[in-house]
TrEMBL record:
GO terms for molecular function: histone deacetylase activity. Pfam families: Hist_deacetyl. One of its GO terms (biological process) is epigenetic regulation of gene expression. Residues 17-297 form the Histone deacetylase domain. This is Histone deacetylase-related protein. It comes from Methanothermobacter marburgensis (strain ATCC BAA-927 / DSM 2133 / JCM 14651 / NBRC 100331 / OCM 82 / Marburg). CDD domains: HDAC_classII_APAH (cd10001).
Length: 331
């Protein structure tokens, strides 16, 4: 099973920012000392034509010039260094290689920076330059023989970029579990955002109350995911693996821990679908390293004995989801 990573990602760095090179460093260190049998692979750089599958050419040219002139701040929280344009292409290429590896051997995981799920067609935001997972999905559909893709995005933030890129597309089922957007960036990801035109019913948001923990997450995902995945019949899973829902994470107020991430990995393994995972957020370095080990143990099929029960607060959210999605899925 392949971990796709390059130390070149470190050239996109700002020590004063939470999204810095220490993150992937912590993950790789934790994986190497975990005893897990993993194959480490270098990514390749995505071509500009690959990036243009999901981003506007005006925007991509702008980023190249901006980075080439020394970089700086694209908005109040998203930076570029002089190397960031190339590094972001390498991160996109890492996601493409993860998809190729998934089809060869079950799963591939791109441990790359910068992250991607907030990047829209024509805007870089939320620490994200290019939408790595969206590029991997398009690569898989155009070049690898995949037609239906399901996305599971468990980063604590709503993946507004990925959601918007596939918002009218009935062949990409985007499912995101995240902290209630009334209380967290980027302020989107409500249940009512279900997709548009042909894509209606193919965008499913699970907004979680602040303070939700392992039981809440595992219960609602166990209610939603098996039904949606069995009716949608995806050829392949794409996972936006963010670890900032961890209770120690400084950016959000969700309280899951390593047990949830190992359950999540195990659930993905249990679907039997090829899975390309890409790193998104996660900003407490200790928690990030440990959570990645737990996630990969789950992906490798370590059975996880997790007891969970109906959670009243979250059951209300599930009722709302099943009402809104009753024309599309048989909950
Ligand atoms: Zn996040």
């Amino acid at each position: 099973m392949a971990i796709i990573h390059s130390s070149t990602y470190d050239l996109h760095n700002n020590e004063g920012h939470v999204e810095n090179k220490g993150r992937t460093g912590a993950i790789i260190d934790a994986l190497k000392s975990s005893g897990l049998q993993l194959k480490f692979m270098e990514p390749r750089m995505a071509g500009v034509h690959d990036i243009l599958m999901v981003h506007s050419s005006v925007h991509v040219e702008y980023l190249e010039v901006f980075s080439g002139r020394g970089g700086g701040w694209l908005d109040y929280d998203t930076y570029m260094t002089p190397e960031s344009f190339s590094v972001a292409r390498l991160a996109a290429g890492g996601a493409m290689v993860a998809a190729e590896e998934a089809l060869k051997s079950g799963w591939g995981y791109s441990v790359a920076r910068p992250p991607g799920h907030h990047a829209t067609y024509d805007r870089s935001m939320g620490f994200c330059i290019f939408n790595n997972i969206a590029i991997a999905i398009e690569h898989s559909r155009r070049n690898l023989g995949i037609s239906k893709a399901a996305v599971i995005d468990f980063d604590v933030h709503h993946g507004n970029g990925t959601s918007s890129i596939f918002y009218t597309d009935p062949e990409v089922m985007y499912i995101s579990v995240h902290q209630d957007p009334r209380t967290l960036f980027p302020g989107t990801g409500f249940i009512e955002e279900i997709g548009e035109s042909d894509g209606k019913g193919f965008n499913l948001n699970i907004p979680m109350p602040r303070g939700s923990g392992n039981n809440d997450y595992i219960w609602i995902l166990s209610e939603v995911l098996p039904q949606v995945l069995s009716e949608f019949r995806a050829d392949m899973l794409f996972v936006s693996a963010g670890f900032d829902a961890h209770r120690l994470d400084p950016l959000a107020d969700i309280m899951v821990d390593e047990e949830f991430f190992s359950w999540m990995g195990w659930f993905i393994h249990d679907t039997g679908l090829p899975c390309a995972a890409v790193l998104e957020g996660g900003y407490d370095l200790q928690a990030l390293g440990n959570s990645n080990v737990s996630f990969i143990e789950g992906l490798e099929g370590s059975s996880v004995k997790v007891e969970y029960e109906r959670s009243p607060a979250v059951a209300e959210i599930f009722n709302e989801i099943s009402d809104v999605f009753s024309p599309f899925f048989n909950f």
